[in-house]
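Purpose: get a first structural picture of the assembly so the mutagenesis plan has something to point at.
Setup: three entries, given in the order below. No constraints added.
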Amino acid sequence: MKTSHLIIASAVAAAIGLPGTVLGQAKAETEKCYGVSKAGQNDCQTASSSCAGTSKKDAQADAWIAVPKGTCAKIVGASLTPSK
Amino acid sequence: MADGAPSPLPTGIGLRARHLEELPVRKPDVGFLEIHAENYLNGGPALKRVERLRADYRFSLHAVGLSLGSAEGLDAVHLARVKALVDRLQPDLVSDHLSWSVTSATYLNDLLPLPYTEESLAVVCRNVERLQESLGRRVLVENPSSYLSFTHSTIGEAEFLAAIVARTGCGLLCDVNNIHVTCSNMRLDPTAYLDALPRSAIGEFHLAGHVINDADGETILIDDHGSRVAEPVWALLREALARFGEQPTLIEWDTDVPDLDVLIDEAARADRERRAFHMGAAA
Amino acid sequence: MSALSLADLQTAFRSACLGSDSPDLAALVDGERIGADARLRIYRHHVFDSLSTALGATFSSVLSLVGEGFFRMLAREYIAHTPPSGPVLSEYGADFPDFIERHERVRDLVYLADAARLDWALTRAYGSDGGTALTAAALAAIAPEALGELRLRLRMGVSLLRSAYPVDRIWAVAHGKDDASIDLASGGVELVVFQRDDDAAFARLTRGEAAMLVACDGATGLAVALERASDADSSFDFATALPKFLNLDILAAP
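Result (structure tokens, whole complex):
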């Protein structure tokens, strides 16, 4: 079905005609603060205290000693065991 | 001041993401705010907050990713973005480090050490000149913390910095903690290091905490910016003040960034050290 | 051992930082008191540590879902494989979601890649200049007969995310804002991710709303976009959708 220009125009007119208070109210209901201002940050320390130490070995990329152990436990319907 | 010198700018603090909401509300009485250029290149809410803070604070722009020591030269795209930010914020000071972090378009996110050779000196000077030409202003180059030195280095680090100043007309950011860390790790004399820096080029002091760790069973100091300034670094600040006089001074903290009050308190300590030095100098 | 050129030294240092031993480089490092390998290890550790921390900050849902130990292993592999190509760390990790999707160790956490895509979209929305949003007043200025051909575009930094899983609720659980357990069988979502004055946020869309925005972003005129929306969702109502889009400031000013 071809959407008529009349339908588009009337919907636009209706949206434009909404009072500002209604728009503002809807905004308050639909938006939340997600606090993502901590995305990866550049800093200028040149090392962290764990960088030295007597350990000669790096944590090895192929030594997968860890399994997922986080809030994924609350997500059901998926296995928590990493596949082999 | 008793000696008629202009009243020094109170010590500043490094602006970190976790304080972005608190600072505009509290407006603590610190001398200036220093931001890392790479965290504000995109625009968006973080930059808007910083721009609003400009009504109350002076700013210093500290870049950490220009990679002034890269043999391949400066990244034109990154340079243009930093220039746009400098033009937008008009900071009092602009700085980056005597180090490198980019090679073959890979960014390694560390302030990596250079061999101090004539070849490196030519590379760094070319990059500093290009940066200053692009920004249309003088920049400050900061001495890094180092954990190694190269056997083929032919120039001392302080002398290398002095040569950059002589060839490019740039200034120096004297990171007092980094001098302490590097000199301890390389068994150098920090007062001799200070003596070798060109006095008139110093344009800022940095202060931060380090941690004492070990490698191969030997003590090594790690510049983690995760604690208060250590006593030997305060002592070295007094030595630096005696040589270079009053400079904009900054407290940096990057690891486990504490409450804003801790930074304010640390800045107040720096102010006491600086005042005590002035009283002594005036007496 | 003759000295390397600075360019070769930096190439070798890059390899050393990313995990390969480099005897040529080690031979140039003064090993007095502390050996060259131990000194180089400090830099290698810091490169991985700091980049892993940066990825964890950007992909905070993934970090929470799998826990820190597992996340660092994922990050370590990713960093070695795809180190940053530029110096802005909030821009690092564009293909981390795809890396997760392909990674066999997390194949059973089927929703994890979409959680990463939402993290990435939020970070992009936050780190965007944003531009100017379309307003009702700007729409009112357009002649009614021109509306059918009007090309609405998403505002800079706004993105659409379709997931077969309730990834918005998964985000809430990962960030401690929802304590309920989530059944993946409860169905997928269409999300729009956008910037707010001081933050970034997301909101659910109906299938029709999402289809309309996808069409608009594909540079079709409004009339065609509305047809696509109705085809995707017979209950689509433009008169409801338009005020919602205007409220969220997700459309760009013409």
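Chain C touches chain A through 91 residues (CB under 8 Å).
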